[in-house]
Amino acid sequence: MKPVVPSDSTPDPADELSRLFSTGEAVARYPRVTELLAAVEPPAFTRACHQLARLDPDAVAAAHPDRPAVTVAITGHGTLSTLVPPLTGELARHGILLRPHVSDFDSYVFDLLDPDSDLYGHGADLTLCVLDPMIVFDEVPVPWRPADVQRVLDEKLRTLERIAATFATASRGMLVLNTIPLPRRFTAQLVDHRSRSELGAVWREANARLLRLATSAPNLVVIDTDPLVAEGIPVTDARMSTYAKAHLSAELLARYARETGHLARHSAGRTKKCLVLDLDGTLWGGVLGDDGVEGVELSDSPKGEAFNGVQRAVKQIGSQGVLVAVVSKNELDLVRAAFRDRDDAELREDDFVRVIANWRPKHDNLKELAQTLNLGVDSFVFVDDSALECGLVRSELPGVAVVRVDGDPALHVEKILRDGWFDTPELTADDQQRVVRYQEELVRKDFLDSFDSVQDFLRELKVTVRLAPVQDAEIPRVSQLTLRTNQFNLTTHRLQQAQVRELAAGPDTRVLTIHSGDRFGDNGLVGAVFTRRHQDALHIDNFVLSCRVFSRGIEQTALAAVLEQARTDGLRAVYATYRPSKKNGAVRDLYPRYGFTPGTEDGDTLVFRHDLRLLPDRPEHVSLHEDLQVECDD
Amino acid sequence: MTSIDEFVSIVRDELGLPVTADDVDLSFDELPGWDSVQMLWLLTILEQRTGKSLSLPDMLEAPSLAGLHKLVVAAR
After folding, report:
1. CA B68 to CA B76: how far, in whole Å?
2. In terms of residue numbers, what domain contains A338?
3. Residues A548 and A410 reside in one and the same domain
4. Do B40 and A18 touch (CB under 8 A)?
5. Distance CA A223, CA A178 (A)
6. What superkingdom does the record give (chain B) (predicted)?
7. Residue B36 has pLDDT above 70, yes or no
8. How many CA atoms lie within 13 A of A185 on its CB side?
9. List of chain B residues whose C-beta atoms are within 8 Å of the C-beta of residue A250
10. Residue A198's domain is classified under what CATH number?
């Protein structure tokens, strides 16, 4: 396998990793282990995966209680425990601790069709049902024709459709299936090309049906193995398949594990949000300061065209809700001129949420950008061609994912896309609007600077808030908010769509959405309040708000409305829970600020109580449209 | 690869198994942390290291690390 992310740091990370394992320090220094893993390639990576898989997840969790953990259930047809080491390593590279449960051999049908099975009992975040060609060929008679394969495939697809339906009601997590690769050792057993074509067609029709299943089921992902295999990976190893019933090659399972790692990152709320790019050598060739606007390499030459390809890919990523920014050591005026005057550039200044060009250290610029966007630096992916800049950012800001694009620009796109940094099960309506909304946000910031007091600013901002029970079409966005939001997330309970739907439909639970807007535009669905009625009290189980709209009275308005409604309903108290995380310290005092008094403490979880006597004021500058009386019909 | 010590260190480093030269005659059932899946990884690792082609069914029948080492040495 070719090295893709070169290591910029001395000493050799592979040596340091081996030392941490051999001295038994790996558990105590687990955070360092995960950093080093991001900098090594096979075979050192493979070796580290085996070592990591031997660590006790409970011991790691006990030593590092802040680490996010993801529970993964693994089931399928063949021997699958070989998947555990690469999966452990891939999750660890993203800072996530794996808690694996491997089912017995060939038990996927029972595991997934019986809602009371042990598999469902694990309450896994991700359930991997690994499909291999022997699922079909183990049941095809000998001799066989394409029609026999088609019959077995049809049966399997019907079973998988039932599995998807059962899973949707029995599990709160995500089910991961995969398209089934077709090895030559079967196609070549048909001697005539006409039959081979028929086999190829029925096989791909079945895979297409499998892929379509994912477009309709909310908590199903189907990993397409075709693009993975097309990278030059063997599908199967005949000896492993024959003697050990390990039907997919170790290389393919390792590649599958990497894709799964991206899904785990999403489950753990660690999807990256912002792609930050350097300019010279990254988005165009040459040096802008030396070569001038007309001199930097774009189009005109083979290398220039390769940079156009990079720009097109960046534009494509940016069109799907990923924020794209520039941090470059350059003169800002010159950079602006380049994006304006180079007709052959694919990217324009308004494709970026922010263009930062100055001579300060890049890590300082990244920190400031994070503040401006109200995001953590650990939601950034930083791309640069300079080993020095990459090394500096890596050491100054360890949470930033650093991608070095050295050398040939034709290879930049693969390097940027390698780790699926922005992978998500589905896009929401808000995603397409995100860049525009952040840009509006920056206009608001300038507007704020023109006022003497925040109060004057807020009055002129003309904030509107709409609070209403969640609608069916909004469920993906609400789930996404619980998964993406870290700072204003009072209990950090991450919810998949099925869980949101369940809470919305429950007799005692409600999911209220917060929409906001102001003179500069619509903010969209920016928050949610999860409530539960128990006897004569209301419990606020969670409250999340997008970081784009903090500190303008929206949270106060929503909270006041919930309290007013509770009083109107004749309730005696409202209880609200705060569970600390690494990121949500800023909202620790949210409830006390609005008249809640400290109540019970359960470990680090705090429960506050409001007696509903003296309700908090609604901020004057916010106009509220609430719709709390009407029950959601569906 | 000829020496049993070298063989043990490969098993230890590549698989993360806490084995020493004292464990080579233990049957695989008694070897701490061992399960048969390890043999699949070892096949790949040992073939890469030695450049020899090994027989997986023979390896699966080997009783202990020492037995496995004999197979590797005898292989061509």
Report:
1. 14
2. 274-417
3. no
4. no
5. 4
6. Bacteria
7. yes
8. 12
9. 40-41, 44
10. 3.40.50.1110
What angle in degrees, to the nearest 10, is found between the helix axes of B65-74 and B4-15? 110
Instruction: Select from B8, B10, B12, B15 the residue whose CB has the most chain A CBs within 10 Å, as the one to mutate to test that interface.
Output: B15
Query: Nearest CA to CA, how far is A26 from chain B (Å)?
Result: 12
A155 and A29 inside one domain: no
Rg (CA), chain B: 11
Residue A354 and residue A325 in contact, taking contact as beta carbons nearer than 8 Å: yes
Residue with tokens 């196609």: A187
As a whole number of angstroms, the distance between CA A157 and CA A159 comes to 5
Would residue A431 count as lying in a domain? no
The alpha-carbon gap from B21 to the nearest alpha carbon of chain A, in Å, equals 16
The answer to whether residue B74 scores a pLDDT higher than 50 is yes
User: Looking at beta carbons, which residues of chain B come within 8 Å of A244?
Assistant: 36-37, 39-40, 56, 60
Contact A21, A51 (CB under 8 A): yes
Q: At what angle do helices A44-53 and A84-93 cross, to 10 degrees?
A: 100
Whether B40 sits inside 8 A of A240 (CB atoms) is: yes
Give the separation between CA A154 and CA A138, rounded to whole angstroms.
15
Q: Which residues, 6+ apart, have CB-to-CB distance to A312 below 8 Å?
A: A346
Which pair of tokens denotes residue A505? 């439909």
Residues of A in contact with B14 (CB under 8 A): 47, 50
Overall domain count for chain B: 1
Question: What CATH number does the domain containing B25 carry?
Answer: 1.10.1200.10
A93 lies in the same domain as A236? yes
- Token couple for A199: 């086999």
Query: Looking at CA atoms only, how far is residue B56 from chain A in angstroms?
Result: 7
DSSP A333-362: HHHHHHHHH-TT-S--GGGSSEEEEESS-H
| Domain, as residue range, for B46 | 4-74
Residues A206 and A243 in one domain: yes
Facing residues of A332 across strands?
none
Question: Interface pTM (ipTM) of the complex?
Answer: 0.90
* Run means of pLDDT, 10 residues per run, chain A, 634 residues: 44 88 92 89 90 94 93 95 95 95 93 95 96 96 97 97 94 96 96 97 98 89 96 94 93 96 92 96 94 93 96 95 95 95 94 93 95 91 94 90 93 95 85 79 75 76 89 93 91 92 94 90 91 95 88 88 93 95 88 91 90 88 71 34
pLDDT tens sequence across A135-192 = 999 999 999 999 999 999 999 999 999 999 999 999 989 999 999 999 999 999 999 9
In a domain, A401, yes or no: yes
Task: Provide the CATH number for the domain around residue A466.
Answer: 3.40.630.30
What's the domain count of chain A? Answer: 4
| Residue A86: closest C-alpha in chain B | B41
